[in-house]
Amino acid sequence: MEVAEWRKSSRSGSEGGNCVEVATDEAVIALRDSKDPQGPRLELRRRAFGVLLGEIRAGRYDR
After folding, report:
1. In the chain, how many H helices and how many E strands?
2. Nearest CA-CA partner of 24 in 55, 10, 3
3. Residue pLDDT tens, the chain, 63 long
4. How far does the chain reach from its first CA to its final CA, in angstroms?
């Protein structure tokens, strides 16, 4: 995903804390830390992202 329009997650804090940005195209969903836009990003195929999101919602990654 070379050219992407990044948007801030609606769940990100307004004080600049937990800021996550997302960009999508036809096949991939990408996530990055808005405080480090040139840093690493996570890119997942849409199906894999859906699986991950389901597991997060189910609490499988809660501490």
Report:
1. 1, 4
2. 3
3. 666 799 987 766 666 566 889 999 989 999 999 889 899 999 999 999 999 999 999 999 998
4. 32
Alpha helices in the chain (DSSP H): 46-57
Instruction: Show the tokens assigned to 27.
Output: 């096949």
- What's the rounded Cα separation, in Å, for the pair 49 and 61? 15
Residues ≥6 apart with Cβ < 8 Å to 24: 4, 30
Look up residue 13 and give its two tokens: 């804090």
28: part of which helix (H) or strand (E)? strand 28-33
Q: Which two tokens stand for residue 35?
A: 């405080």
